[in-house]
UniProtKB/TrEMBL annotation:
Pfam annotation, one family: GerE
Alphabetized Gene3D superfamilies for the sequence: P-loop containing nucleotide triphosphate hydrolases (3.40.50.300), Winged helix-like DNA-binding domain superfamily/Winged helix DNA-binding domain (1.10.10.10)
Keyword set includes Repeat: no
The keyword Iron-sulfur is annotated on this UniProt entry: no
GO molecular function: DNA binding
Record InterPro entries: P-loop_NTPase, Sig_transdc_resp-reg_C-effctor, Tscrpt_reg_LuxR_C, WH-like_DNA-bd_sf
Keywords in alphabetical order: DNA-binding, Transcription, Transcription regulation
Domain HTH luxR-type positions: 787-852
PANTHER family: DNA-BINDING TRANSCRIPTIONAL ACTIVATOR DEVR_DOSR (PTHR44688:SF16)
Name the UniProt record assigns to this protein: Response regulator receiver protein
GO BP terms, alphabetized: regulation of DNA-templated transcription
Superkingdom of the organism of origin: Bacteria
Length: 854
């Protein structure tokens, strides 16, 4: 990590400083401590020519006449009336252009301030001063500041924090980690620097999957505490009382705070830039101030404060899920004994707010408070929602045999949902549902069981059966909301597999609506969204894909446990649209954040690794694709049925980037065959299209049949693509490229355009080449695109042999891979050298890699 941090997100301020220096001869930079005023002043000074004098005012020098300018008083004459002028002459030193920069000008003594004022009056040069907000400014300095334009230096924005930390660490920072850095530091550059340094040293800020991820809350180092106490320490007792209240509840309602301190204390704290007051709520100016007080105040004192705050919230604030959770959290860490019933209510409220880890903690508190089976069932449920499927299943198993039929049926429903969704074992979930079926029917839970069972059928690769079962179940009355959400997932997944995207959109809309009204089903919206995106992509109706992914991302910003899931959704959406660089970023984020969770994250992590491998292969990054593929766990559980075609296509792209066109086609055709066996025509369509992108022409007839089955424009475009490729029709290949571009499938559009090049001539060929280059702007470097370099010169087999040779394989290894003799490999290479006018194997590889063969 560099010792000198760069300046980012300050171009606007630098322009304002430059304009002030040119127009007014100086500028005053104002802002809170640590915001970066001095760093900005240094940067502004570096852009100027001439002599620069840097003056640092200090507390100790403030009581000494000319204390800040002591280094320039040695040559002063005996006449005290000329001392100010003598110091000015020493500062100027006969130079025609002088800039004086005064850091912490509010600490200048009166005579030093007078020197700077006379310097400005006499137009001897220019001045930049920094003044800290919230500090008293002596009259002499205030008079000086009034002569110059004031430029406020705000804290860094969220984007600025992310850009700064990324630049310092040399790699991207996971987006929610960057957001948390901003939340803790409020964009204060000084606090940010110390916090990043401390968290790296503590091992909580680490690089995973090429992305920096910050795990857990900070533990303040002595260095950071010293920095914070320079702002928040040594305060009057009344302000310490106020800070302690905010340390246990930030923000807090103004009426609650006024029960602890009077309004004058609040005004004083605001003037000292310790708090902000907005809309009837009071917040700490920096969350880290609360960390300092929690470290400094006694445990017993803060437990008492929590009890008081919790009681006052109950008395003075309107009831809501947020207030219930706040009171429960305060009471759990207070000197008041917890109430199990209230803690279960609070756990459910935390679930409603999608704070899953807190829901688990509150349910654990309910169990510890003697809540019995009700608290245990709540805890098992919260563990499942938080992704701790193994622990949840163990608790559900213990509860399975107790209670009446209705309770046993409810427990079985929850256990089956956990087995299917979290532990990726829908087959086991079916066993649990079947065993409790009689109990479910006896208490009216039959349709709920069917809805959940439908999702298991879909996960196990039976889309038509799943759609029929879910449709019947969801037409019943009083279906459990959690089970209903699984039913909608089954519909979206199954209808997407079958290519019925019109009905799929209606099912997805109903599921999203349910997610907003049923807390226990809310978190399932992410799985629903992913399957809707998959279905839309397969059909070629991609215009809504990015909107769905971004909406889910916005809805989950405060949900730590969903970070990996929403990142993989965004990454896949970008992959579908051919924005490969952006896809890499999000898929790496998913891999980095997913590694801290267990159970359900195994499937999410595998999806991220699989799609990142595919993305890197599409980008022509053989080494990156190989490395990512080698790190995959290949864990899908029973969900391998629905992701089998993606797994095979990933292998196809690996073969393609390796140069093995024939093997890539074989894998893609095999994936299509698997999809057809499963009764998933939309996936079969995509696999056959991919094979066509690799150069297969045997896909024409089946694509024509699928065009009559799968809704959406992809089937027609893919059929046109395959037909044109078989007929070597360049014009129709360009038409197919345009069709893919309209759909939003940029990579397929690129391949069709590249494949058109050898079948066109003159201006039409040049237009096709230009179109391919334009479509490759998103980072794609597919085999078809790379093959354009040898258009009209080499045969497809010669290009394949050269592409494999470029990966470092020997002629013998190439022969084994392509099932041909070594002599045949040598013949292909020899004839290619003849055609391209080169003499060696390495020259041949280099020529094609540079794209200069023509």
């Amino acid at each position: 990590m560099p010792t000198a941090w760069p300046l980012v997100d300050r171009e606007d301020e630098l322009r304002l400083v430059a304009a002030a220096l040119n127009s007014h001869g100086g500028a005053v930079l104002t802002g809170p401590a640590g915001v970066g005023k001095s760093r900005l002043a240094h940067a502004a000074v570096q852009r100027r020519q001439g002599l620069v004098r840097w003056i640092a005012a200090t507390v100790t020098g403030q009581s000494i006449p000319l204390g800040a300018l002591a280094g320039y008083t040695a040559q002063c004459g005996p006449d005290p009336l000329r001392r100010v002028q003598d110091v000015i002459q020493a500062l100027v030193a006969g130079e025609p252009s002088v800039l004086i920069c005064v850091d912490d000008a509010h600490l200048l003594d009166d005579q030093s301030a007078l020197v700077i004022e006379r310097f400005v009056e006499q137009a001897m040069g220019t001045v930049v001063m920094t003044v800290r907000d919230g500090e008293p400014v002596p009259d002499s300095v205030a008079t000086l500041c009034a002569r110059l334009p004031r430029i406020a230096v705000p804290p860094l924005t969220t984007e600025g924090v992310s850009a700064l930390v990324t630049q310092v660490l040399g790699a991207a920072v996971e987006s929610s980690s960057a957001q948390r850095f901003f939340s803790y530091t409020r964009g204060n550059a000084l606090y940010l620097r110390q916090l990043v340094t401390d968290e790296i040293a503590a091992g909580r800020l680490t690089r995973r999957a090429g992305v920096w991820v910050w795990d857990g809350p900070p533990r303040l180092s002595a260095s950071l505490v010293d920095l914070l106490e320079a702002s928040a320490g040594n305060q009057p007792d009344a302000i310490i009382e106020l800070l302690d209240v905010l340390a246990v509840s930030d923000p807090i309602e103004l009426p609650v705070l006024l029960r602890f301190v009077d309004s004058t204390v609040i005004d004083d704290a605001r003037d000292r830039v310790l708090i902000t007051v907005d809309g009837g709520q009071v917040r700490l100016a920096h969350p880290l101030f609360g960390e300092v007080r929690r470290n400094r105040a006694g445990t017993a004192r803060l437990r008492g404060v929590r009890s008081q705050v919790a009681e006052l919230i109950g008395q003075l604030c309107a009831p809501s899920a947020v207030q219930t959770v706040r009171r429960a959290v305060l009471l759990m860490d207070s000197d008041t004994q917890g109430d199990a019933v209230f803690l279960v209510e609070a756990a459910n409220a935390a679930l409603q707010l999608l704070d899953l880890d807190l829901a688990v903690r509150l349910a654990e508190g309910a169990v510890a408070a003697g809540g019995g089976r009700a608290a245990q069932a709540a805890l098992a449920t919260m563990l499942a929602f938080a992704g701790q499927g193994g622990a949840a299943d163990a608790m559900f198993a213990e509860l399975a045999d107790g209670g009446d039929a209705a309770e046993r049926a409810s427990i079985a429903l929850l256990r089956a949902a956990n087995l299917s969704w979290v532990l990726a074992r829908p087959g086991n979930a079916e066993t649990v549902l079947n065993a409790a079926r009689d109990a479910a029917d006896s208490c009216g839970l039959g349709p709920s069981y069917d809805a959940l069972h439908a999702s298991c059928r879909s996960a196990l690769g039976h889309p038509r059966e799943a759609v029929d079962m879910a449709t019947a179940a969801l037409s019943a009355q009083n279906v459990d909301p959690l089970a209903a959400m699984f039913g909608y997932w089954a519909l979206v997944c199954g209808l997407g597999d079958l290519g019925h995207v019109d009905r799929m959109a209606d099912a997805a809309a109903a599921g999203y609506e349910l997610a907003t009204t049923a807390p226990q089903a809310s978190h399932l919206r992410f799985g629903l969204g992913l399957m809707e995106i998959v279905g839309l992509h397969r059909a070629g109706t991609q215009e809504r894909i990015s909107d769905i992914a971004n909406r889910l991302r916005q809805q989950s910003l405060d949900v730590v446990a969903s970070r990996s899931f929403t990142a993989v959704i965004l990454g896949y959406a970008e992959l579908c649209c051919g924005r490969l660089e952006s896809a890499q970023r999000w898929l790496r984020e998913s891999l980095a954040t997913g590694s801290v969770f267990d159970a359900q994250s195994g499937v999410i992590r595998e999806l991220a690794g699989m799609w990142l491998t595919m993305t890197l292969a599409m980008c022509g990054d053989l080494a990156g694709a190989r490395a990512t593929d080698a790190e995959r766990f290949r864990y899908f559980g029973d969900y391998s049925h629905i992701w089998r075609t993606d797994m095979l296509l990933t292998q196809a792209w690996l073969e393609a980037v390796h140069g093995s066109q024939s093997r890539a086609i074989s894998f893609a055709i095999g994936a299509a065959r698997t999809a057809r066996t499963q009764g998933r025509p939309a996936h079969e369509l995509w696999c056959l299209q991919t094979a066509t992108q690799f150069g297969a022409t045997e896909t024409v007839e089946r694509l024509g049949q699928l065009a009559a089955v799968v809704q959406g424009p992809r089937a027609g475009v893919a059929h046109e693509h395959a037909s044109a490729l078989r007929r070597a029709d360049g014009a129709r290949l360009l038409s197919a490229s345009n069709g893919y571009a309209v759909i939003g499938d940029t990579v397929a559009a690129l391949d069709a355009a590249a494949q058109a090049v050898p079948h066109l001539h003159g201006e039409r060929q040049r237009r096709a080449i230009a179109a391919a280059h334009r479509l490759a702007a998103g980072g794609a470097r597919t085999p078809a695109y790379r093959a354009m370099a040898s258009t009209g010169v080499l045969t497809p087999r010669q290009r394949e042999v050269i592409a494999i040779a470029a990966t470092g394989l020997s002629n013998r290894e190439i022969a084994d891979r392509l099932v041909m003799s070594v002599r045949t490999v040598e013949g292909h290479l020899f004839r290619a050298c003849q055609r391209l006018g080169v003499n060696t194997r390495d020259e041949l590889i280099s020529l094609l890699a540079d794209g200069t063969a023509s």
